[in-house]
Amino acid sequence: MISRLYSASLLGVEAVEVEVEVNSTETETPRMVIVGLPDAAVRESAERVRSALSASALPYLFGTHVINLAPADLKKEGPSFDLPIALALTAAGQDHDLTHAEDCLCVGELALDGTLRPIKGALSIALGAKNAGKRRLIVPAANAREAAVVSGIEVYGLENLAETWAFLSGEKALTPEPRRARVVGGKSRRYAVDLDEVKGQHHVKRALEVAAAGGHNLLMVGPPGTGKSMLAKRLPTIMPDLTEEEAIEASCIHSVAGLLDAKHGLISGRPFRAPHHTISDVGLLGGGTNPSPGEISLAHNGVLFLDELPEFRRTTLEVLRQPLEDGTVTISRAAGTLSFRCDVLMISALNPWGCGALLLFVYCCY
């Protein structure tokens, strides 16, 4: 029998719907084949799924299982396909029609005992499921609060594989996760520091206020110990509150990178990123074999602070020019081209030469 379920794959910060098809045939030799451009993590899901099915007491057909992840020309990455593969295998083995699966999208990594582990990009997947016309989304319980920010879709945060099967097969009724209000700005902003704590430094604080109000980049020059880094860290606290759209954009990037705090769902304050001067071009702009956002994208709608500016490699600084102008960084690889938003306010700091007698504060607009 052939069974089908729906999942999603991340392409940059966007989620693309993936159809999980399982064809089970009874044979003497057990075998599981996964096709559809799976990466190593997806191919290894076969062993996790077998163990999770056994631990959850869910029967599946002893034989050959061909698992297709469509569209076949899109590379599938990560362990988030464990859950739909396990559910589709169970449905195929029991010749069971999952009546609640047509309008449902499910993602999740399986532990060997059938427990659902959190995944990256739950917020992007929730937005993608809504755009694909799905009515329900099943995610691990740890990701439920994050995904429930999206309106127009029911989010179910489940703990294990057995509970998920009982829900999809109609044996158990569950209540969706309460929708989380997209509260951003105001009292919900969380910062460990504040510019109000700084005494004196009136001329520098004036420069920071102008930069925050006008979106100007800022260069601070001064001897060590004069408070350049301290002041830069406090700049986000005087920037305008995030709008709802800005909060969702920033949260999606952090979610894909696995940096979003699952307890809060959305980023409420302006991001602040301060990469070390030894950072590589890929670490700053993003990229890699499986392109992921870099520091400049993680600072989207916030502040990118480059301390000890002359210590950065010249090539690293040169590649920043175009993204700072366009507000978008484009990464081209053999598999395709991805774009990440990077609308940032860049703050730089450096020490004067030799004697350290020169103290200048310059702000400039790109």
User: Tally the helices: what do you get?
Assistant: 13
The percent range for strand residues is 15-25%
Tell me the strand order in the biggest sheet. Answer: 11-14-17-10-18
Q: Could you give a short account of the major beta sheet?
A: 5 strands, mixed
Low-confidence stretches: 354-366
The CATH class of the largest domain: Alpha Beta
Strand segment count: 18
According to CATH, what is the topology of the largest domain?
A: Rossmann fold
Superfamily at the CATH H level of the largest domain? Answer: P-loop containing nucleotide triphosphate hydrolases
- Helix proportion range: 25-40%
Q: How many structural domains are formed by the residues?
A: 2
Q: What's the architecture of the largest domain, going by CATH?
A: 3-Layer(aba) Sandwich
Shape: elongated
The end-to-end span amounts to: 61 Å
Oligomer: single chain
Classify the secondary structure makeup into a structural class.
alpha/beta
Radius of gyration: 24 Å
Mean pLDDT: 86
Topology, element by element:
Blueprint: E1 2-11, E2 14-26, E3 31-35, H1 40-43, H2 45-55, E4 63-70, H3 82-93, E5 104-106, E6 109-110, E7 116-117, H4 122-131, E8 136-140, H5 144-147, E9 154-158, H6 161-168, H7 202-214, E10 217-221, H8 228-233, H9 244-256, E11 272-273, H10 281-285, E12 286-287, E13 292-293, H11 295-298, E14 303-306, H12 314-318, H13 321-326, E15 328-333, E16 336-341, E17 345-350, E18 360-364
Parallel strand pairs: 3-4, 5-8, 8-9, 10-17, 11-14, 14-17
Antiparallel strand pairs: 1-2, 2-4, 6-7, 10-18, 12-13, 15-16
Helix pairs in contact: 2-3
